[in-house]
Amino acid sequence: MSSRTAYAALPVTLPPLSRALVSLALAVARWEDRRRTRSALARLDSHILADIGLTSAAAQVECRKPFWRD
């Protein structure tokens, strides 16, 4: 589920502070997902990367991105 989808599903009647906290929690969850995914990507062998259509160089570029970058 993307954060945009989850944010759109929030009730309109939610107080502003609650909406902000939920948005923050969703951002942290996205960041953690990116961190875990990039960590797993860094551990893949080149033949597995080829199976998913990535070169080792492309995987390294992705793995070097900070967690907050999409």
Describe the overall structure.
- With 70 residues, this protein is mainly α.
- It has one domain (3-64).
- The protein has 4 helices and no strands.
- The chain has helices spanning 3-8, 16-42, 46-51, 56-64.
- The mean pLDDT is 89.
- Residues 24-55 form the YjiS-like domain.
Q: What is Rg?
A: 16 Å
Per DSSP, the total helix count is 4
Largest sheet: none
What is the CA-CA span between the terminal residues?
15 Å
Average pLDDT works out at 89
| Model regions low in confidence, pLDDT < 50 over at least 5 residues | none
Alpha-beta content class: mainly alpha
Order of helices and strands: HHHH
Q: Please state the overall shape, judged from the principal axes of the Cα atoms.
A: elongated
Instruction: Give the domain tally.
Output: 1
Topology, number of strands: 0
Quaternary state, please? Answer: single chain
What is the percent of helical residues? Answer: 55-70%
Beta fraction of the residues? under 5%
Element layout with pairings:
Layout (H helix, E strand, L loop, with lengths): L2 H6 L7 H27 L3 H6 L4 H9 L6
Helix pairs in contact: 2-4
InterPro entries: YjiS-like (IPR009506)
Protein name: DUF1127 domain-containing protein
Pfam families: YjiS-like (PF06568)
Summarize the structure.
This protein is mainly alpha-helical and 70 residues long.
What labels would you give this structure?
single chain, 70 residues, mainly alpha, DUF1127 domain-containing protein, YjiS-like
